[in-house]
Amino acid sequence: MTVPADQYHAARERAGLFDRTARGRLLVSGGDRAAFLHGILTNDIAALAPGQGCYAMYLTVQGRVIADMDVLNTGDAFLLGVHADVTAALCARLDQLVFTEDVRIADGTDALAEWHVCGPEAAVLVASLAEVSEGRLAPARLAALPEYGSLPVRIGAGDVRVARLSPTGLDGFSLFVDAAHGTFVHRTLLAAGAVELSPEVVETLRVEAGVPAFHRDIDETTIPLETGVEARAISFTKGCYVGQEVIVRVMHRGHGRVARKLVGLAVDGEVVPVPGDPIRVGDRDAGRVTSAVRSPALGRPIALGYVHRDCLEPGTAVEIVRADARLPAVVTALPFVRQEPGRPAPSAAR
């Protein structure tokens, strides 16, 4: 996988732009929408005021992940951003769960486009194009949005919802806009100085940040506690939700111990592993690779993968089996590369 250096450095040092329109977007409306979602998702949806949001999961009764999602309270509805592959099935499943509640589930995927701007100059760039009721949007107001916070603005003649999200691990903002206005917003962002990023660059930034991706690092066999994102995906103080019994049992009876967990792997040499490659310790199977790239920041291949709980300690030596070769690797704390909001220079995690 070739990563264009100019695009990579633009995202790290200035502002990068990429299309997230391929993701699914569900709209949940009606007077009982908050209580409905609160009862089935892992996070505290009832606590979200308009303009607030969170990361959440929808689980099976066995505690396995059906979908992970960005949840945004837009005031008159909840906007759920989900993986494209699960959109239709999730929409149908949620609709089946509505009985007497005042809740309506709609698939808004085709109606909305989503562009994402990331990097240390993202807030200034987006604010320079956006207007609010009192005039031009101040960069400080945008920069002050909490993670998953959002607000309505106008760019040109179109209404846009700007949400602070970080799918690459970099500070960034997703712009949700009517599909008919999406091309205008895209061109306007490019004209303002955003550099368009290839999928390869986006994937590299994501893995460097240790952000797990659905249907890559998380799937229908995964328990949230295995992913390392449980602190932001699960509320441990809310009431019941689908799959809660399994999570509570592992936390209380098992003290949070799971058989495997997602970790970072710093790989020696120049060969980049492939998802599915086995991870071994001596002659023992220890896990498998789920994502891998060559990191420009670290100058080496890196990977995400699940390993047995005996191998979780950073510094643990393992081997990744790639074809007939064995690639030495070391379990590494995530993220691989840290980047503070507004600061261009990344630093390797230690």
Give an overview of the whole structure.
There is one protein chain. This protein has 350 residues and is α+β, with helices and mostly antiparallel strands. The protein has two domains: 5-203, Probable tRNA modification gtpase trme, domain 1 (Gyrase A, domain 2, 2-Layer Sandwich), CATH 3.30.1360.120; 259-350, Elongation Factor Tu (Ef-tu), domain 3, CATH 2.40.30.110. 21% of the residues lie in helices and 34% in strands. The protein is built from nine helices and 21 strands. The chain has helices spanning 5-13, 33-38, 87-96, 122-129, 139-143, 179-191, 199-209, 230-233, 244-252; strands at residues 16-19, 24-29, 53-59, 65-73, 78-82, 104-107, 112-118, 131-132, 135-136, 150-155, 158-164, 172-178, 195-196, 260-267, 278-281, 284-295, 300-308, 317-322, 325-332, 337-338, 347-348. Strands 10-11-12-7-1-13 form a six-stranded mixed beta sheet. Strands 14-17-16-15-18-19 form a six-stranded antiparallel beta barrel. It has a five-stranded antiparallel beta sheet with strand order 3-4-5-2-6, with helices on one face. It is globular.
Q: Give the total of domains.
A: 2
Proper CATH architecture of the largest domain: 2-Layer Sandwich
User: What's the β-strand tally?
Assistant: 21
Share of helix, binned:
10-25%
Cα shape: globular
- Backbone CA Rg: 21 Å
Q: Which residues form runs of ≥5 with pLDDT under 50?
A: none
| CATH class identity of the largest domain | Alpha Beta
As laid out across the biggest beta sheet, the strand order is: 10-11-12-7-1-13
Please work out how many helical segments DSSP would assign.
9
Strand content: 25-35%
